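Weekly modeling sync, notes
Attendees: AB, CL, MP (scribe)

Item 1: holo prediction request
CL wants a bound-state model with adenosine-5'-diphosphate before deciding which constructs to order. AB pointed out that an apo prediction alone won't tell us much about the pocket. Agreed to run with the ligand included and paste results into these notes for async review.

Input as submitted:
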Amino acid sequence: MLILVANLGSTSFKYKLFDLASNADTPPRVVGSGSADRIGQPESAWSATLGQHEEDGTLELPDHAAAAKLHLDLLERAGVIESINAIDAVGFKAVHGGPISGAVKVDDNVLDTMQRFADVAPAHNPPYIAAMRAFAKLLPDTPQVAAFETGYHQTIPKARQVYAIPHEWTEDLGIRRYGFHGASHRYIATRLAEIHPQAKRIVNLHLGGSCSITAIKDGQSVANSFGMTAQSGVFHNNRVGDFDTFALLKLFKADLDVDTIFQRLGKEGGLLGISGVSADIRDVHEAAEQGNDRAKLAVDAFVESCRHYLGAYLVALGGADAISFTGGIGQHDKIVRAAICQNLGFAGIKLDLDKNNTVTGKDEQRIEATDSQVAIWVLPTNEELIVARQTAEVLGRATH
Ligand SMILES: Nc1ncnc2c1ncn2[C@@H]1O[C@H](COP(=O)(O)OP(=O)(O)O)[C@@H](O)[C@H]1O
Ligand SMILES: CC(=O)OP(=O)(O)O
Ligand SMILES: [Mg+2]
């Protein structure tokens, strides 16, 4: 069974094409994969692995649709599949389904619900809705599954779900913390259970275009930094993160209308807002190195934002056996990892700077000092594998 999993990140397009054997003991095989970064920027670097063959290049003015088309064409051209009609199902790492959580077959009700929540998921729901519609046109008979990110976080205790608001808003309108990045946090929890089974208390830092931190106890999510929406918690590439709701009153009084305020908080905040340079941390570091004070402030504030939740979750878990870094920044940014781990010896967390500097980001590596009580992992995430398994499950096929 060939399952294509589409991961439309806030800054990237990623996909994997899995061949899932009917035998549950055979692990899914990736027959093709690819990515494109800097979606929405002038130029994107893309790469693809198509069987034994690798290719890369650049794409001008990339959006998710252009990146998806490029990769589907490459799959056909490289002969990995004869035509896209060979794909048996498409799984989406969907984000906000409001009351719909976990994995479900995409139908009009799912699309309508995603549309109703598009206002609170502006960076994610619109491109997913567009992609689902585009695939339905291309492959009208191929089933689609949406694996909503909130599913993994259903184990978060109520006291960490509620906002301190009139309770009828929570009960009647569903205004509460949901948590996102469920596929990634679930993958890391599952993977660490295999390669580091002694680690029962884990803080996983998924830092990418969107950033979130999860406290994991015995494999389950018990806290996640995202709230009602994927704009909250640790701040993001260009989205605000945690913010004081009453500060909005000052913005209204400054004669800004609601749409403008939310547009700017959702597109001109985060790393971009503070630095004024870029939403991509690679550019922000470069500017900071050249002496740009706002760029340096953006990196420092980002690190503080991460340490805030790391500290909170160490308390929630009563200490950690392991912390792990994943996502584009988590896997590749040694400056951020080192700054987050600085002076945490009191909590048993000590980084080995040499290991931190030489880690590939593509392999599973440990970077703690020999006298650290807490393991520090850098782990490539594999959200697509989780979504492929969920897709097969929804469509009624047993998988490994
Ligand atoms: N080699 C790198 N070094 C440092 N940061 C990187 C690198 N590659 C990507 N990033 C950061 O990771 C972000 C993308 O992370 P990713 O997890 O792919 O994002 P998303 O899924 O949210 O689109 C980029 O915006 C950039 O800030
Ligand atoms: C919330 C979420 O899934 O974010 P992203 O796709 O940007 O990583
Ligand atoms: Mg992502």
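Recorded for review: The longest strand covers residues 29-36.
Action items: CL to compare against the apo run; MP to circulate these notes.
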